[in-house]
Write a structure and sequence with these properties.
It is a single chain. The protein is an alpha+beta fold and 68 residues long. The protein has two helices and three strands; from the N terminus they run αβββα. It has a single domain, classed as Metal Transport, Frataxin, Chain A (2-Layer Sandwich), CATH 3.30.920.30. The longest helix is centred in the C-terminal third of the chain and has 18 residues. The radius of gyration is 11 Å and the shape is globular.
Length: 68
């Protein structure tokens, strides 16, 4: 079962990512230790797409590795 957009946003926020608004329902999440920013589209209650979950997981792992 796919995660909700709000769950992905919560994970990013807890890891220290900061967000800024984009066009429409897009939010752009940035972290100084991440390789790239993560763009999430969709309202909080929508199911996240597989590529969104994958992108969030990859960037969270990058930040975890660089903190060590």
């Amino acid at each position: 079962m796919p995660k909700k957009i709000r769950e992905l946003k919560s994970k990013l926020s807890k890891a220290g990512f900061r967000w800024r608004t984009g066009k429409g329902s897009h939010t752009i999440w940035e972290h100084p230790l991440a390789d790239k920013s993560v763009t999430l589209s969709g309202n909080d209650g929508r199911d996240a797409r597989a590529y969104q979950e994958r992108e969030v997981t990859e960037q969270l792992e990058v930040v975890r590795r660089r903190r060590r």
